[in-house]
Fold:
Amino acid sequence: MFSKAMATSVFNPCSIITTSRAQPKSSSSRPSQLLSFLHSNNPAGPIVDLKFSAAACSWGCQYDSKQSLSRCLAANITSSALKTAESSRETSTLLAAEGVSSSGTRPTILVSEKLGEAGLQLLRSFGDVDCSYDLSPEQLCEKISSCDALIVRSGTKVTRQVLEAAKGRLKVVGRAGVGIDNVDLQAATEFGCLVVNAPTANTVAAAEHGIALIAAMARNVAQADASMKAGKWQRSKYVGVSLVGKTLAVMGFGKVGSEVARRAKGLGMHVIAHDPYAPADKARAIGVDLVSFDQAISTADFISLHMPLTATTSKIFNDDTFGKMKKGVRIVNVARGGVIDEEALVRALDSGKVAQAALDVFTEEPPAKDSKLVQHENVTVTPHLGASTKEAQEGVAIEIAEAVVGALKGELSATAVNAPMVPQEVMTELAPYVVLAEKLGRLAVQLVAGGRGIKSVKVVYQSARDPDDLDTRLLRAMITKGIIEPISSSFINLVNADFTAKEKGLRISEERVVVDTSPEFPVHSIQVLISNVDSKFASAVSENGEISIEGRVKYGVPHLTRVGSFEVDVSLEGNLILCRQIDQPGMIGQVGNILGQGNINVSFMSVGRTVRRNKAIMAIGVDEEPDKEALRKIGTVPAIEEFVFLNL
Ligand SMILES: NC(=O)c1ccc[n+]([C@@H]2O[C@H](COP(=O)([O-])OP(=O)(O)OC[C@H]3O[C@@H](n4cnc5c(N)ncnc54)[C@H](O)[C@@H]3O)[C@@H](O)[C@H]2O)c1
Ligand SMILES: O=C(O)[C@H](O)COP(=O)(O)O
Structure:
């Protein structure tokens, strides 16, 4: 029956499941009766008025749908209304590009450590920049609630307390450098705060520093310098070792590690590397053998550390691993102090197992003045200078300023650390579907009768495209947002959507069905199904017992096209009244009259039925929220069997 095999992949082991299948040409495209009472602000195109909610953002702007889409990624937004406000849109788009909202406020960007001038200039052109260095943790917590962005280097600890103290306003943390071990990523994700870093601009600087330390250590440069400055001339004391022909083990063959390897090869060293995730061909291209951890540390004369500090790498160099090394090994660390058990290193130095160490980074920075490690005569130290060249600092400052400004504009930075990467072209293409996805989520959750929590949501995407060509992460995030936000105080964006769903015990499964429609459009329809719940509107429940609604984008505008087993066609804007009634003449007039008496403007109306003169569903788009009296009167129309008011 299906032309493609079912494929299942797991995005998130706990809450997200995706499947895909192909489907024969759908017979469900029978047009419903469309009775369109077109209203003057019927949207003509995909222009969306998006406003930040007060909790998450202090400035709001109007954007076209492309911008609105990217906004949802980094900030808390609601696609509250569709409209064609051409003139105000132009003005506000312009303002947004400069970081100024229509209300005249600019984002506040706190820079808590020294940043290159070029980066600061870029930031100042977009927002109000507060350079406050050396803040205590308390001072940082105090300041942060009035900031939209925070830029740090390795000296500022962005803890859960800091993120909590931000009270939802902080949208992005920019790490002006590579290592993000000083940022509580889990907490940032929970609070929907994007974390971006500047991963490339200091690579060469760090690699050069690594090489400098290897050479300086091998030739006792620092010790000899100190000795001479103390008035001594100790030529025999500082006889060094040569590098040529020695084996260097590069531990962590990423950006810095591979640059160190390249340079060490130039010095005539034999280079091996250990990195469980590095591609072998990349190593081969530089003439480096990838080996196991034990093989690397047991055969090397020099060991240079270039892995990130993570739960796995914390103190990975300890008594046990030092024990496996060659006697007289030399160790260089320009990665993170925490990957070494520093007390174990002191023991290894004292015993002579490790002949020398050269360290740029420390578990505590700065280390204690009486640190045995720092004071050890066989240890060369620098105060975390790996990234500290003029060139690298300018580069890092520009790289992070661009990423932070982009994030504040709502663009997804290519260097986002805690959000999935969605390429710009995908974002642009999915723009109107993002609005549809959120509206369907909002609508579906309002159809659930109280009392039982929602545990399981299934989303079915019909598309003419191959399932691999459809990136649904954005759509899933927006459906999650639509479902969760109306019933909780959480705000959802691409950063925290999956996390929040999981935290709330909401399992979202996805299915992609290949249909025979135009592949020009990425999605033909989106169906949202909620199982194991009762509905306020029994007609929304499908034959399978699930609340089921389906929508499509038509001419750039999201439409509701199916409720339960009834086809409807109503533009998703403003508010919606769904009525199930006996299919007979005069129904539209009766309900229309009641709404008219209540001064409620009808924007769209659509009737869908399964069998003629049997049951029908009337979907009525209304601009205003009907008062209790109008709703009561609708309930008294004899042919109306049930109805529900839904706020979109
Ligand atoms: N001293 C400084 O000023 C300075 C400057 C830049 C970078 N750094 C640090 O250097 C390190 C490397 O930076 P990068 O830009 O090369 O990062 P990177 O992400 O490009 O490379 C890190 C590599 O480590 C590997 N890795 C992860 N776990 C590993 C493990 N258990 N064993 C071996 N390899 C493992 C990864 O696969 C990756 O290839 C980071 O810790 C960074 O913070 C320090
Ligand atoms: O991870 C990094 O990029 C380096 O450790 C640089 O840190 P810094 O910005 O504090 O110099």
Observations:
- The pocket of 3-phosphoglyceric acid (ligand 2) is lined by residues 153-155, 176-179, 202, 384, 386-388 (CB under 6 Å).
- The longest helix spans residues 424-446.
- Residues 1-15, 24-72, 74-98 have pLDDT under 50 and may be disordered.
- The longest strand covers residues 456-463.
